[in-house]
UniProtKB/TrEMBL annotation:
The gene is PLEST007654. This is SRP54-type proteins GTP-binding domain-containing protein. It is a peripheral membrane protein. Its main location: membrane. It is found in: Membrane.
Length: 391
């Protein structure tokens, strides 16, 4: 199957994928990009105008984050199951007393472990609260709740690394990787929708050449998001498909320097993190992006299925070793009570969570915000209701 949204355009030398013999070299691309794409980048970077450029995506990132903050309901709804699992914390805190705080902290640790915070991370959180009690800073149930949230926010703030996408190039490229069924293609679609809606020109590369249905799924997301889908050929080597798509884009920009996409999203096939050959293929995919667009991809994001809980830690380690990740996207948090795994993954891997998936629609991808997350898991109103019920 071949989809040719770019291929066979007037002025193109034919289908990108049917041209392997005549493909220009990387050096040729770079020569052209010096005259074309890079010139566009330079002319739009300094003025802060709205006509595109690297600044555009950073501004859009902020806009998307601000809008999401106003849409706390969706975030809140998406974390319902985890919050329910953590409901025991409210019961514990309703019975809180300074005399037997040790017992309460042990139970708190168990509740956190049951929500997949993981033993190490749960212990860290509880230890911080214990320190607070010993220093006299934590006295009441309210103080304990505040200390709990504070500890979670601190762990999630991940050694100062930002949860915003760092998209500096024009075009900026994002490589999406992960195991089978994690939610990669859906996430690519949601990202295209989000950035497209704010005015970015988005291009999708169907790097999952394993099966035709993958490209069809991406095409459907592309239609919804108003994004352009690149050429696809079932069974082709994904790194070749990525390279030829980027080459098509280079040719377009050579012809018309204003014809530049802001954001290129590269979907890839699901693969087991233990399959050496497939992981090696992924490194070639990343290299194909870097060859065509020096300095890219700006982001290499691992999509993790939130319902797998702590098993995702091993996946993240292997993918990080293979392609050096810049961040994580956790999906399906709406379907799991194991959302605490977010804290554990950030704590143990030192990689920031950039977005979370809280449903299957285009709107259900939320920029990750540590404070909003802690607030969603331990909302104030619930605490007030629990205290009222006790009286
Ligand atoms: N509830 C829920 N479902 C999701 C979310 N993200 C993805 N899904 C669903 O998960 C399933 C798999 O999603 P895909 O995007 O096809 O996953 P993938 O990683 O591309 O899969 P492969 O390409 O086969 O490896 C689909 O049914 C999606 O609708 C989410 O945040 N919440
Ligand atoms: Mg897919």
């Amino acid at each position: 199957m071949q989809q040719t949204l770019l291929a066979n355009r007037p002025g193109c030398a034919g289908s990108a994928l049917g041209r392997s013999k005549n493909q220009p070299t990387v050096a040729a691309f770079q020569r052209c990009s010096r005259r074309g794409a890079v010139k566009v980048l330079a002319s739009s970077s300094g003025n802060g105008g709205d006509s595109g450029g690297p600044g555009l995506l950073q501004r859009l990132g902020r806009v998307i984050k601000e809008k999401a903050a106003g849409d706390f309901d969706r975030f809140f709804k998406g974390t319902t199951k985890t919050r329910e699992r953590l409901g025991l914390v409210d019961e514990l805190l309703a019975l809180w007393s300074l005399e037997d705080y040790e017992e309460a902290l042990e139970e708190l640790e168990e509740v956190l472990i049951s929500a997949d915070f993981g033993p190490r991370t749960a212990l860290k959180i509880v230890d911080r609260i214990r320190e607070g009690v010993k220093s006299g800073r934590v006295k009441s149930a309210d103080d304990t709740r505040a200390a709990l949230k504070e500890a979670i926010v601190e762990l999630l703030s991940c050694r100062g690394r930002s949860s915003e996408l760092k998209l500096q190039g024009r075009p900026a490229a994002v490589l999406i990787v992960g195991v089978n069924g994690a939610g990669k293609t859906t996430t690519v679609g949601k990202l295209a929708y989000k950035y497209g809606k704010e005015g970015a020109k988005v291009f999708l590369i169907p790097g999952d050449t394993f099966r035709a249905a993958a490209a069809e799924q991406l095409a459907e997301w592309g239609r919804r998001a108003g994004a352009t889908l690149g050429s696809f050929r079932e069974g082709a080597r994904p790194q070749a498909v990525i390279a030829s798509n980027l080459d098509e884009l280079r040719q377009r920009t050579c012809k018309d320097p204003s014809d530049v996409f802001d954001l290129i999203l590269v979907d890839t096939a699901g693969r087991l993190h233990t399959a050496y050959k497939l992981m090696e293929e992924l490194t070639l995919c990343k290299a194909a992006v870097a060859n065509a667009l020096p300095g890219q991809p700006d982001e290499t994001l691992l999509v993790l299925d939130g319902t797998t809980g702590l098993n995702m830690l091993n996946q993240a380690r292997e993918f990080n070793d293979a392609v050096k990740l810049s961040g994580l996207i956790l999906t399906k948090l709406d379907g799991t009570a194991r959302g605490g795994a977010v804290v554990s993954v950030v704590d143990q891997l030192g990689l920031p969570v950039k977005f979370i998936g809280v449903g299957e629609t285009a709107e259900d991808l939320q920029p990750f915000d540590a404070e909003a997350f802690a607030e969603a898991l331990f909302p104030r109103e619930v605490a007030v209701a629990a205290a009222a019920a006790k009286k």
